[in-house]
Request: fold
Amino acid sequence: MPHSTAHNQPAPAPSSVGAATLKIDDRTMELPIVEGTESERAIDISKLRQETGHITVDPAYGNTGSCNSAITFIDGEKGILRYRGVPIEQLAERSTFIETAWLLIYGQFPTRKQLSSFSGLLTTHQMLHEGLRNHFDGFPNTAHPMAILSSMINAVSCYHQDVMDMEDDETFESAAARLLSKTRTIAAAAYKASIGRPIIYPRPDLNYCQNFLHMMFSLPYSEHEPNPDVVDALQLFLILHADHEQNCSTSTVRMVGSSGANLFASCSAGVCALWGPLHGGANVAVIQMLHEIHDQKITMKEYVQRVKKREVKLMGFGHRVYKNYDPRAKILKGAADKVLATLKVHDPMLDLARELEETALEDSYFKDRNLYPNVDFYSGIILRAMGIPVNMFTVMFAIGRMPGWIAHWREQWLDTASRIARPRQVYTGQTLRDYVPMDQRG
Ligand code: ACO
Reply:
């Protein structure tokens, strides 16, 4: 564990504000009620099994607070998202991805010196070890870039064993910078490998976003000069995806990290969790859905009817936490107009998306269930306009989410009271029975 400094604290414990009474048969038990800094209340059941022999059942953890965290606050009813207390709208307008990453990881705005030193570390560590480049040849060129990204992030740790055992915050910073920087290099290389083109080296004179676009679109004989509007759009996209508290992939990172697994292994697992269509993979599913509607000339009313009959899901709609408009979707919807106009791109998918949203939001099925567009509904349209291929959409999400995963891994690492995550179950299988020899089985 590192020495404690102002930037180096685990999440504070919530305040104790009362107690709830639980009655089981003829026994009562007092359960402490705790309150976070935004007045969210929770019943602390950590002593429940020890004192009553009972556990709680909460499939998909919809009512379970798995940790204390001081990184991101969401009010799903009001549509509020803040990183370290700062509204997402302000960061989207005024920050950069690397500044936001620092803020998430360390909890403070970086000084000019800290930002410049961190950016320097990212530049120092942006190359991949030459040995790692050979790994790309081992994947078939039909491999999904998410599979390559996850495997390669884990493989990076084999080449940097000096940062695996973290004793101090300096080693952590070096590991975090390597992970953040190399994830972008791996992502672009995975794309190049998937289209059978040579991998392009990063350039030390370009910033994080410019460098990604350079590695994606340059060729050995033709340098791509990133368009400043595309760089801005990428910056916005990455900031909006940088953290979202205890979602499926972040909880995965924390779960894996809770066993003492290193930062690279934990974040590689986060990439796998993000891949699914109910999570980060939804940005691909939205574009596929819009294509289907477009190509088969399905009307919006017909599509909404199919959703209501549960033949399909309206991808990019609904959220476990937001029961209001996802603030990230609101920003991306506004940005989509601007980005497409600036880049002089007309995308019929944007018109379709707006029409589909309008039709859904007027329908009682969606109103009654508080289903609104989430971050994935408009993000694919912006990525398309930037020239990012569809199979890279979820990879883009992973690049954006990396600061959040790193911040959560660190918060847990700093917490000396943290234990290995280990849920229980209600067993509903066979009770005790004997082994049946092969010749006696029917
Ligand atoms: N289309 C149609 N119906 C939906 C949708 C949807 N997109 N989302 C939820 N519903 C319905 C459910 O069928 C359920 O209806 P019921 O009560 O009549 O059975 C009700 O709304 C509540 O939904 P749940 O499935 O309980 O919501 P849950 O919190 O478990 O799931 C999820 C959230 C996975 C995001 C869901 O809304 C979904 O599948 N959306 C589409 C996929 C998507 O866009 N994922 C990206 C999420 S954002 C992110 O991960 C970055």
Summary: Residues 131 and 159 are 8 Å apart (CA to CA). The radius of gyration is 24 Å.
